[in-house]
Amino acid sequence: MTINTNEDDMFTPRMAVVGVGGQGSNLINRLYNYGIKSAATVAINTDIKHLNMINADKKLLIGKEITHGLGAGGFPELAAKCADTSKDMIMDAIRGYDMIFLAAGMGGGTGGGAGPVVARMAKEQGSLVVAFVTYPFSLEGSRKQKADWSLEQLRKNADTTIVVENDRLLSYAPNLPIEKAFELIDNITSNAVKGITDTVTLPSLINLDFADVRTVLQGGGTAVINIGFGSGNDKVERVIRSTITHPLLNVNTENAHSALIHVSGGSSLTIEEATKIGEGVTDGLDPKANVIFGARLSPEMKDQVRVMSIVTGVTPRLGEGVVTSQTAEYNRDFMEGIDRIY
């Protein structure tokens, strides 16, 4: 496990979070209002009404001559054309960033169609591109077919594609109202993005070196993100258990080759505790896997600890059912952790 605590060896990379489509733009709005300082925010959409509701550093209406600002109507091929015809505008907005997080919902029009095109453009101008996308609920039959096509296109153009499976996330909180369910998905993604950007660009207990981040995420393929929470006297053990029992995608990790671990905790969090947590959540990986690790103190968390792990090179099992063996105790840790942060 690689640990870097030398701030003098670090440079500050330019980072941006780019939301494409309705769901991606909603995430941008949340991050902007949340006060993210370590990355620029860019919202891209074909729907002018929705775009006008979003707060962001930059907002782009693409394909105006094609859709007249009325959206892509759920057609990803049309949205892809909108992005291609707006290439100059998009390239101007994303130029010069070392790392771009691209957020989109798979299964719709603009996110699923324009998202892969924006990823390709970002790669063309030299950015490390990490996509955070959601996969539709099982009841959304036609959207799942579109999502599969969009995911295939996105994997061709992004360095790493992190997929959050909606069904799997909701298995941990089956009684949530649908509006709260989508809010929870946004919370998970925004927390992951902010955690990485802050730890790379801001002074931390244990810094993430951008060169190591690039090594893990460049050409990472499909990735799974795990989130865990713990508090109390046994917070280390609880956060490890919570993390490994709450993967947000059904995957086979046998061929996983790299992992990025980020730990956040209150001012009492020690390096020893953070390191033990990092070792615990990666215990099941191949000993030869490249693991990098960062930790950041957040006084507002008090006695709580939060872990985010991104494991790359996994094989997804989308739509193959949801494992529900998690205990109520750790589901409670998971949901209470989300509530306390947001």
From TrEMBL:
<dbReference type="Pfam" id="PF00091">
    <property type="entry name" value="Tubulin"/>
</dbReference>
<dbReference type="GO" id="GO:0003924">
    <property type="term" value="F:GTPase activity"/>
</dbReference>
<keyword id="KW-0132">Cell division</keyword>
<feature type="binding site">
    <location>
        <position position="140"/>
    </location>
    <ligand>
        <name>GTP</name>
    </ligand>
</feature>
<keyword id="KW-0717">Septation</keyword>
<protein>
    <recommendedName>
        <fullName>Cell division protein FtsZ</fullName>
    </recommendedName>
</protein>
<dbReference type="InterPro" id="IPR036525">
    <property type="entry name" value="Tubulin/FtsZ_GTPase_sf"/>
</dbReference>
<dbReference type="InterPro" id="IPR008280">
    <property type="entry name" value="Tub_FtsZ_C"/>
</dbReference>
<dbReference type="GO" id="GO:0043093">
    <property type="term" value="P:FtsZ-dependent cytokinesis"/>
</dbReference>
<dbReference type="GO" id="GO:0051258">
    <property type="term" value="P:protein polymerization"/>
</dbReference>
<keyword id="KW-0342">GTP-binding</keyword>
<feature type="domain" description="Tubulin/FtsZ GTPase">
    <location>
        <begin position="14"/>
        <end position="204"/>
    </location>
</feature>
<comment type="function">
    <text>Essential cell division protein that forms a contractile ring structure (Z ring) at the future cell division site. The regulation of the ring assembly controls the timing and the location of cell division. One of the functions of the FtsZ ring is to recruit other cell division proteins to the septum to produce a new cell wall between the dividing cells. Binds GTP and shows GTPase activity.</text>
</comment>
<dbReference type="InterPro" id="IPR045061">
    <property type="entry name" value="FtsZ/CetZ"/>
</dbReference>
<keyword id="KW-0131">Cell cycle</keyword>
<dbReference type="InterPro" id="IPR018316">
    <property type="entry name" value="Tubulin/FtsZ_2-layer-sand-dom"/>
</dbReference>
<dbReference type="InterPro" id="IPR000158">
    <property type="entry name" value="Cell_div_FtsZ"/>
</dbReference>
<dbReference type="GO" id="GO:0005737">
    <property type="term" value="C:cytoplasm"/>
</dbReference>
<feature type="binding site">
    <location>
        <position position="143"/>
    </location>
    <ligand>
        <name>GTP</name>
    </ligand>
</feature>
<keyword id="KW-0547">Nucleotide-binding</keyword>
<feature type="binding site">
    <location>
        <position position="186"/>
    </location>
    <ligand>
        <name>GTP</name>
    </ligand>
</feature>
<comment type="subunit">
    <text>Homodimer. Polymerizes to form a dynamic ring structure in a strictly GTP-dependent manner. Interacts directly with several other division proteins.</text>
</comment>
<comment type="similarity">
    <text>Belongs to the FtsZ family.</text>
</comment>
<dbReference type="Pfam" id="PF12327">
    <property type="entry name" value="FtsZ_C"/>
</dbReference>
<dbReference type="GO" id="GO:0032153">
    <property type="term" value="C:cell division site"/>
</dbReference>
<keyword id="KW-0963">Cytoplasm</keyword>
<dbReference type="InterPro" id="IPR024757">
    <property type="entry name" value="FtsZ_C"/>
</dbReference>
<feature type="domain" description="Tubulin/FtsZ 2-layer sandwich">
    <location>
        <begin position="206"/>
        <end position="323"/>
    </location>
</feature>
<dbReference type="InterPro" id="IPR003008">
    <property type="entry name" value="Tubulin_FtsZ_GTPase"/>
</dbReference>
<feature type="binding site">
    <location>
        <begin position="109"/>
        <end position="111"/>
    </location>
    <ligand>
        <name>GTP</name>
    </ligand>
</feature>
<dbReference type="GO" id="GO:0005525">
    <property type="term" value="F:GTP binding"/>
</dbReference>
